Amino acid sequence: MSDQPNQKLHDVGGWLYSDIVKDHFFNPRNILIDEEGYEAHGIGVVGSPACGDMMAVWIKVDLDTQKISECKWRTFGCASAIASTSMMSTMATENGGMTLVQAKRLSPEAIIDRLGGLPDRKYHCSVLGHQALREAVMDYEETN
Ligand code: FES
Questions:
Q1: Which of 3, 15, 23, 121 gives the lowest tally of CB atoms within 10 Å of its CB?
Q2: Is 79 in the pocket of ligand 1 (CB under 6 A)?
Q3: Domain boundaries in the chain?
Q4: Above 50 in pLDDT, residue 6?
Q5: Treating both helix axes as pointing N-terminal to C-terminal, what angle do 79-93 and 123-143 enclose, rounded to 10 degrees?
Q6: Which of 1, 12, 31, 51 is catalytic?
Q7: Is 9-143 in CATH node 3.90.1010.10?
Q8: 17 vs 8, which has greater pLDDT?
């Protein structure tokens, strides 16, 4: 295992997971367990045609700054989807939160980069969270 967090582990074509991926899988950030009492400003739900897994993202937006203040999620996806979405939710809300434009532009590559890489065949898992975030932002924009 590399001690360089930004090494592209997916470039080696194997099944290695970075320590950052493992951390976000075993300690996922911002999971929403029970959405009953959670009043989201925008909701996005997507499924992966590659594996049939579902991803839901709930966001809250700071109405003054129009930045994402909370980003919650839940998935039936695999370990890579969990780690990727945990990182996505961290990136969306860190440093005062992303603007709506930044959130819609967040790419799977940027998430994978922050994770220190993902195996090539796990790329589609990182797409789920990013797509659901974009759907949630568009849901917010349509209703506000
Ligand atoms: S294999 Fe389906 S989300 Fe990873």
A1: 3
A2: no
A3: 9-143
A4: no
A5: 40
A6: 51
A7: yes
A8: 17
